[in-house]
Amino acid sequence: MIVTCVAGLVALGLVMLYSSSMAMVYGKAHIEVGAHFLILQSAWCVVGVIACAVAVLIDYRHLKKFAWPLLGLAVLMLLAVLIPAFPTVFVRINGAKRWIRVAGFTIQPSELAKVALIIALALYCEINLRQMALFKRGIVIPGLFICVVLGLIFIEPDVGNALLLGSVCSVMLIVAGIKLRYFLPPVMAIALGVGIFIYNNPMRSARIYSWLHVEETRQDKGRQAYEAMNAFGSGGWTGLGLGNGREKFGFMPEHTTDFIFPIIGEELGLVATMLVVIAFLTIIWCGIFVAMNAREAFGMLLATGVTFLIGMQAFINIGVVTGVLPNKGLSLPFISYGGSNLFMMLVCTGILLSVARRGKDPEPVSSNPFAGRLPEPETT
After folding, report:
1. Are 239 and 261 in contact (CB under 8 A)?
2. Kind plus residue range of the DSSP H or E element containing 162
3. C or N terminus of the chain, fewer CB within 10 Å?
4. Using 50, 70 and 90 to split pLDDT, how confident is the model at 370?
5. Who wins on pLDDT, 80 or 145?
């Protein structure tokens, strides 16, 4: 089921990416880009599928050897994007320093950091499983390396990914057995700090205001949300037809990345969008089942982490484009344009399938339907 859902989402993403990028608008000029974005995304998809297959074939427990080196590499890459020198290598877009350009490809280190932190946290929790209920082992020590990674992502700035990864780590810690009385106070303090930051940050407070007043800000900050609602509304049940959408012609920005879901709704209709939601729900359900049937704590926590990473990112994106949540800048897994995210999501899928392949053996089924239900005959 996981393979079927992921394959369907990736295929839909490639089709919709080609449809939505046939004509890009820069300023007031329409530029025909043809299959440019499709070719780039397809290249990342091929590499990602190979990495996914390798992850499935290799025992996930080998990741324990690379957990801390991977996390160290991720931290170094997150530090590298903050270097003001070498603007052709460390790319700055719309004031954010999140990307590294290598050989014509743009890499987002925060995508590696998300997976690396999940692996490292799963290993830490397994080693200290019997002591996770203690404040020091369960909160202080994991909180230190979690905060280092989240802090570096936060100051890029990438508040959406920082909040997403923080939520995933919180779920993993709760599953590992930390005490809620130790967990809730620091979480409330962090939430208060984030709220103060947003209140004092003009750009992000404007996003909150536009989310609450879409009609009033539809020509400015609320434009994407307003046009997304128009796209869903004009699509109806079955859509306008593949390629016939109008919002991609300069009306809705970021329609190949964060806001590709409304293009699906406009061109393919409500039926297609509901199938996408069902696919993500199926992945989450299967991921939870895999975690519950893992052979040991590392597999359980690893499956939990990657499952909630995929699921929470998907539903935050869907919540944003449908107006339920304020804009977070998160892409839709497997569908949105973005090579780094697609690659790492496919790697996460491979890890999840590796845990599933090496899970607990199923209970043997007796050929006698009444076995275990009737008392055994007495013997003399």
Report:
1. no
2. helix 159-176
3. C
4. very low
5. 145
